[in-house]
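Let us begin with a simple case.
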Amino acid sequence: MSIKNISSFWIKSLIVGVSLTFSSCEKILELDPKQSIDSSTALESQDGIESTLISVYSRLQNYQHYGRDMLALAEALSDNAIHTGNSSHLINEAANNRGSHFDLWQNCYYSINEINLVLEALENSAGQYAEGWANDIYGQAYFLRALLYHNLARAYAYDPTAIIQERNKGGVPLMLTAVNDLSKIGELKRASIEDTYKQIYADLEASIASFSGSDEQGLYPYKGNSYAAKALFSRVALYNGDWQKVVDMANDALSNKKSVFSTVVNYVDDWKKETHPESIFELRYNESENIGSDRSLRATYTSRAFYESENFTIQAVIAVNPDFYSLFSEDDVRKGVYRKGVGNNQSYWEVYKFISKNGVMNLDNVPVLRESELYLNRAEAYYHLNQLEDCRDDVNTIRNRAGLDDFETLDAALLDEVLLQRRLELAFEGHRWFDLKRRGEDIIKDSGNLTFDDYRLLAPIPDREVKIDGKLEQNYNY
């Protein structure tokens, strides 16, 4: 193809945007990620490699990724939330209008290319760097690439556990070679769903193996780490219906863990802390990285600027569906993270998991992987492995921490309870839409039901990419 026909995505991928170099890994989150240096310089030193990797973390913070959409859209598109009408933000997503969906394609592939450049630089370094440091960078890079590919697959492809074959266009393109000149640009053909998951598995296996020989110095849980790689593996395996792998990886992640499981007493207070004690991997925001009053999670979810505020602030567009709120038992401590709003939202229940808890308006760290998810992943897998008592033990771990009595039943109602506790525990953290999708379930909501066979279940691939490469198939009916 000619240079003028290459999409903007591929041209921008030729030069890596990375943050300024720094003196030690301890400063990884103290830099301005918006400044950049040329990739040819960045990847010639230890500082440059670290800076390139920081750029990946910075892209994950974007509002189209974990800064807002990976959490808020997973609620707006599904049945946990309703739109308040305070702003047009996310109103089309809440109504499941055509094309109003996740839009993280470009963000992810920019990041993947940066990771590939880091991996290439390490492979070409010929023992230039200390082994422990290099292994830590390898571990982070493979972990992040697996996370990115899984997020792409969740948004743009069917999950292995629930596929409509006649509409299946495959997984996502697997970009595994660093692109820093035109000769390395490949075609954008989508890999199969099976091959996409094989690659994610391979990256996670490589990450875990690398971390086993790494220094893993500092910054837990703000960077990729061995526990996070295993926790992510348990999630990926759940989407793949690989039940024993879910159990094995959850067991590994929970053994010798650094996270601290919340208790019935401190559950609500833990959500007010800058870093959540349960976090296994959490994105940390500095004041200069504040997403702001239009698109932050705080602004999206709450009418208050701070927990004790009584004045209405702009936006506050995604509120709690009363039908969802009614699922909580009266004595469930998790109800404490929901409050009635103020001003325009005084009649709405709002979620207070993100409420300027870093001390600055609209500034919140975002847990990506936390301990409670592991118990719920494992409980669901145990059920499918017919290890019902183990399943019940895990779901009761979550119930008891919520202040609820043990669940006693060992029949099909047990799976319903697992899924209910998953919905209640992980609400507004970016799971509901994807859980319904991977289970092939319909989305029932007042704004209009969305059956599993509806084409709007999958996000549209950006038109600019489809038009450039004829081998990249668009999702059905877009």
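The second case is a distinct protein. As before, the sequence precedes its structure tokens.
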Amino acid sequence: MDREIPKEVRQKERNKKLIRYGISAAAVIVVISVLISVMRTGVKEKDVVFSTVDRGTIEVSVSASGKVVPAFEEIMTSPISTRILEVYKKGGDSVDVGTPILKLDLQSAETEYKKQLDEEQMKSYQLQQLKVNNETKLKDLAMQIKVSEMKLNRMRVELRNEQYLDSLGSGTTDKVRQAELSVNVAELELEQLRQQYENEQEVLDAEYKVKELEFSIFRKSLAETRRTLEDAQVKSPRKAILTYINNQIGQQVGQGEQIAIISDLSHFKVEGEIADTYGDRVTAGGKAIVKIGREQLVGQVSSVTPLSKNGVISFTVQLEDDSHKRLRSGLKTDVYVMNAVKEDVMRIANASYYVGRGEYDLFVRTSDNELEKRKVQLGDSNFEYVEVVSGLEPGEQVVVSDMSNYKNKNSLKLKK
């Protein structure tokens, strides 16, 4: 026969079961929490780069691409159509001022030059001849004027004599009138000669000046021919490196065709290119920073092309240290052109995440050592800093390294 279990025993058994169930539930919760913690996406602290938000000055700049080129480079061209006779140097050779580089065939040019020299002498003689002829013509007219003056004086004496005789009754009125007429005619003839002399002098002077000008023009043309012949003696205009030479002996070269290039490879400048949308921010005289690896070279924008080509504006930067050891011809660089200064603004380090003004999703370090995605408004920048418009506070730490692998995550666990 069954006995009834006492109430106290049943109470103890129930309490034992409740304790076991509670312990099991707590264990399950702990396990689940551990699993969630383990499965949650995280990133190692050493794999990310932080920038602390601070306040300071930003020299606003726009970035451009650049290329290092020799500070001096001269393209030497053939001044005439001819052929190459001899080559004295090869590419890469150092040349000094006046060093012969190559020899062109100048025979026909020299023959033409000698012909022009003879023509110059002939024109000089012609000019001298014209001067003598003009002087002779004017002297003849001057002599005629003197003779006419003498005739007029004689006629005036005869008129006075006739007038005197007429007053004594020995002369006649007709003779007096005839003498007066002769004087008047002689005066008119003398005036005509004087006017002719003045006109002839002006005409001859103008004719001489025209011939003199023609002779001057010819001599300038002759000087240009002489200079062309001198240029055809291809010599280095300065101390430099011969970076290119046409060494094909016997090859025909046309007038203006490139035959050699000399460059000063001890001094350099940077040729930059920037999208024309930023063209108004690049002006001559503006400060520029050229980055070569970790090196930063200070320079100044010396010139800006006024026209856009294929959506790009070109400019040139003169460097303060144009002989820096890192400079090499053809080396690609980053160029930052300064165009404004902003004082006392929030800022973070510039890195690959920044592509221009606008809103960004950045990961910010929280107090419980996690990374939280936050909307941040960024403004202007330079090569070191980016302006923070809103979304961050001074002292906060922001991830500035590449986080594209976590773009779909809103938070990340920061692991040691």
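The radius of gyration is 50 Å. The chain is about 35% helix and 35% strand.
Keep these points in mind for the review questions at the end of the chapter.
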